[in-house]
Here is the input.
Amino acid sequence: MQAIQIINKNDKNTLEIGTVPDPELSDSDIQVKIAATAVNRADLLQRTGNYPPPKGASEILGLEMAGVVKKTGSEVTKWEPGDRVFGLLAGGGYAEYCTIHEDMAMEIPENLSFEEAAAIPETFLTAFQALEWLGKLQEQETVLIHAAGSGVGTSAIQLAHQIYDARIIATAGKQHKLDTARDLGADFAYNYKKQNYAEEIISDIGNDSVNVVVDFIGKPYWHKNIEVLAMDGRVVYLSFLGGHKVEEMSLIPILRKRLSIMGSTLRNRSEQYKIDLTKDFAQKTLSLFKTGSLSPVVDSIFDWSETETAHQRMKNNKNTGKIILTGM
Amino acid sequence: MQAIQIINKNDKNTLEIGTVPDPELSDSDIQVKIAATAVNRADLLQRTGNYPPPKGASEILGLEMAGVVKKTGSEVTKWEPGDRVFGLLAGGGYAEYCTIHEDMAMEIPENLSFEEAAAIPETFLTAFQALEWLGKLQEQETVLIHAAGSGVGTSAIQLAHQIYDARIIATAGKQHKLDTARDLGADFAYNYKKQNYAEEIISDIGNDSVNVVVDFIGKPYWHKNIEVLAMDGRVVYLSFLGGHKVEEMSLIPILRKRLSIMGSTLRNRSEQYKIDLTKDFAQKTLSLFKTGSLSPVVDSIFDWSETETAHQRMKNNKNTGKIILTGM
Here is the structure.
């Protein structure tokens, strides 16, 4: 099959469509003819050699896909050739074909195109894991979502609004991102460049008022997050874009407010974890995608021969929403 | 009824047995004639006025008791007068009688005296909450228990050994405490005054080998705890006896190892939480107390007219195990 290959896996690497062996189909796998995949920041790291794929995963870039089932393994019961499916991959999305465990695939809602479906898995499953599995967000609780303009941020706002009817606080650094956050369901949106969000939250909502924080920023927000958290509050870290070294942290609020502070990434989880997460996600959200209550945010669509241009767009932070590759 | 009263609730306070109204019996409560109660560090703080009881709780000292049911509220179905019961109190143990929600009381195993039963609730329920509800310790995981000679420490070692068949690492500062820890089921026991427990664990067991840490010390152990934790590791803080200010903390291990860092106290939890915890605890442990696989550690027994002496013994850290008051 054809797949995008990394030539010289270092700072001077290039991408090139080449011929590679078809992926192996095990008994519980389906083989999918990929129609669309999406670009993730991890792809940009992986091509420089700095973020090797986990053990057993494909060396080919691409962490999510949408397409059509072509073949099924001997033990597959859920799918038939021709079914439209999408899902998370440990790698291998930048290619004509991939294989995926049958329980990792989800049915594409009829109203969604392949390009839209390919924009869902990474951001929505990451946000779902953070809110449901780690943060254990409850109906009508208050959630603080940082980097609200990011893929995971916009997904988290939609999920918090649609599944949990949560009171949503969003932070971002640009007005159009704050506007998008409000459009998607945020009740409060603060510009971290102009406002101290902790002061704003205390003034607008009250002391100790936030049940769950989803944070990608790290160090600069540590003290403010702790300050606004309620009793039994939870913080879920997904990355540390603003640095990781906190100077002078007091442990007292952890005990006094009975806090839980957690971190997680999705990629290095076991296949069984991802299967369980996918099933729970599909059960709770696919009907909401069907009615349009939840929708993937697509920034732009590139033919996969233009992958380099697509990567540059992400590298330069030009995108709002997902960058899609198609035409395999 | 007679109860111990605090005269001058400040640094110069004294204790005195005096007459107070009987506690009110609500429909779902039982009234218990107390046969024994136990001393907790919280009692020493409360008598100075520094640790007021939570809203709605008795002003009388005493966070646990064992005794005999005397009266039952109109909706009580589980108990009859004459039943031997023990359990956690939000206050009111230093008295002839207490009232307690029928679901907060547990049946005293036949082989245990009142003095032994009164030594169980605070330490074992705190340890159980830390291991089962917060730390989610799994069968044969590895648990690191600090302050292994304390009441909660000895209880946690017993539970980790008997319920989870865990690999247990204990730390303490005295040889006889380390010996006790080994007797109760610890596989490894380190003297923190003479050994760097992180180095010892890495040498004896390996890198990233600890699934759950139960910590009372705080600051001096932060970096070492993080260092020895395994993927998906959990830290449960119950107090910060060694200080709370951590300088220069990196958030990276929280993400890389997918850690959860939690804190909790038992006393300020809701009644419903304590009921659920008590039920789960009773179901998983009472049969083990009956066979002697689990046993309370009693340090000494005082007539309640000698409560001041009993408090001094705790204040001077003379006790190993629980100090019991009786003779009400």
Observations:
- DSSP finds ten helices and 17 strands in chain A.
